[in-house]
Write a structure and sequence with these properties.
The chain is α/β, with parallel strands linked by helices. It has one domain: 3-Layer(aba) Sandwich (Rossmann fold), CATH 3.40.50.1000. It contains seven helices and six strands. It has a six-stranded parallel beta sheet with strand order 1-6-5-2-3-4, sandwiched between helices. Strand 3, helix 3 and strand 4 form a beta-alpha-beta unit. The protein is globular and about 40 Å long. It binds magnesium ion. The site of magnesium ion has 7 residues, from loops. Magnesium ion binds next to loops.
């Protein structure tokens, strides 16, 4: 179960403390797209998320989008933001995170993954020893398979709390948002 435990749970990308990441010597971010920066399947990224990426870049972070979405979709956001992307990532199994790290020229201990899914983003990042940050999905509009995974995520998070692997407070950041679906 350890490989599914996120290092950090945050409400959204906006709640990620970039200074704390710097203190950990993290200078690269591999960021999920759907339901992390853009509501699932939406064509547009809201200005606030564009600004967040730009601010992180200004603060010296290198950023690569890593998405299971099609290449075109991933690339359109990469172009908008002026950063690289790896599409069709097949998270958690593919080599996408490795490719993302290679694109940024960084080692695993310098990189954090930010995403909304325990089984793709967090598990995929933990497998490689990356710092993993789980955020709440932006929308509950998702694939049916993802909805099913959400239920499993919830029970897994509950088990983590019982085993003292994450705090109740952290788990509630997540559960509060999902109690209605
Ligand atoms: Mg996602």
């Amino acid at each position: 179960m350890k490989k599914f435990v996120p290092d950090l749970i945050c409400e959204s990308v906006f709640a990620v403390d970039l200074d704390k990441l710097k203190e950990r010597q993290i200078s690269g971010l591999l960021v999920d797209i759907d339901n992390t920066l853009v509501p699932w399947g939406e064509p547009q990224m809201e200005e606030a998320f564009v600004d967040w990426v730009k601010r992180a870049l200004q603060e010296g972070f290198q950023i690569c989008l890593v998405s299971n979405a099609k290449h075109d979709r991933a690339q359109s956001f990469a172009d908008l933001l002026g950063i690289p992307a790896v599409g069709m990532a097949l998270k958690p199994l593919g080599r996408a995170f490795r490719r993302g790290m290679a694109l940024l020229g960084l080692a695993p201990n310098q990189v954090a993954v930010i995403g909304d899914q325990l089984f793709t983003d967090v598990f995929g990042g933990n497998r490689l020893g990356l710092y993993t940050i789980l955020i709440n999905p932006l929308s509950t509009n998702e694939l049916d398979t993802t909805k099913l995974m959400r239920r499993i995520e919830r029970s897994l998070l509950e088990k983590m709390v019982k085993r003292g692997m994450i705090s109740r407070k952290h788990a509630q950041i997540r559960q509060g948002r999902e109690s209605d679906d």
